[in-house]
Design a protein that fits this description.
single chain, Tetracycline Repressor, domain 2, Arc Repressor Mutant, subunit A, 2 domains, 13 helices
């Protein structure tokens, strides 16, 4: 089935992804209540110093990691004092989870125009969502790399009780975001536009592929929206093609049993 290229919406996409606005009342009708609450988080009314702290923390956690990024380092990036950090956040962990939450809000907001566009069929919707996810990964790279650290913390057994409690909301946000992709995949399978794949596994594969952008992508001098758009467009086509109805099956030679290490019994 042919898919509509996001290229024609490039300029509109730039404003809605690069500078996501607060969700207007009524725009999120039809979405689950928890997502409505998250996307309506009022960052626009947040004090400028607090927003600057989130940006600085995202960079510090990316560059140094959670353990090594001290409050002093974060505060120094914006010429603030340690006291000003603690005025807004009780601890470094609270600040870390606030950065993670904002990253997920950015992701959710970016998908709203696609999710609510009634003119798109499921295949076009999936490609659009993949495109916008790739763009957010690049345009908010520091924030998105913190979400990777958050997953590692979630899987760690060394987190404290308070950290695990704080993780619950961001993990719930990640699950809800993944479910948006899974729902579109189910629609596409039901309509015959997509191959009969396991939706949960397919959504994980698609997001895993796109999230890997945070590992290999590094902005270069002269990097523009157009260059990011080109990357996102190709990746969106690739991941959509992977679940397309007409995708070729794996060759028998590829799907045969993998060789066992020497000495291992079957």
């Amino acid at each position: 089935m042919p898919t509509r290229s996001p290229r024609s919406d490039a300029s509109r996409t730039r404003s809605s992804i690069g500078h996501p606005a607060r969700v207007e009342r009524g725009q999120s009708v039809g979405l689950p209540d928890n997502i409505v609450g998250w996307v309506d988080t009022d960052y626009e009314s947040m004090p400028a110093t607090q927003l600057a702290l989130l940006d600085a923390a995202a960079k510090a956690f990316t560059n140094f990691g959670f353990a090594a990024a001290s409050i002093d380092v974060i505060a120094a990036q914006i010429g603030a004092t340690k006291g000003s950090v603690y005025y807004h956040y009780r601890s470094k962990a609270d600040l870390f989870f606030a950065v993670h939450k904002r990253a997920m809000v950015l992701n959710l907001r970016a998908q709203l125009p696609v999710m609510q566009d009634k003119s798109l069929d499921p295949v076009q919707k999936l490609q659009g969502m993949a495109y916008r996810h790739a763009m957010v990964m690049m345009e908010y790279l520091h924030y998105q790399r913190v979400t990777v650290q958050g997953v590692e913390l979630h899987q760690s057994t060394t987190t404290s009780a308070s950290e695990r409690e704080a993780l619950k909301e961001v993990v719930a946000m990640r699950d809800a975001y993944e479910h948006l992709f899974e729902s579109v995949l189910r629609e596409g399978i039901a309509s015959g536009g997509l191959a009969s794949v396991e939706p949960s596994l397919a959504s994980k594969g698609i997001l895993g592929s796109l999230n890997w952008i945070t590992v290999w992508y590094r902005p270069r001098e002269g990097d523009t929206f157009s260059s990011r758009h080109k990357i996102a467009e190709q990746l969106a086509r690739q991941v959509t093609h992977g679940v397309a109805r007409e995708a070729a099956p794996l060759a028998a030679a590829v799907t045969c049993a993998t060789p066992q290490p020497a000495g291992r019994r079957q």
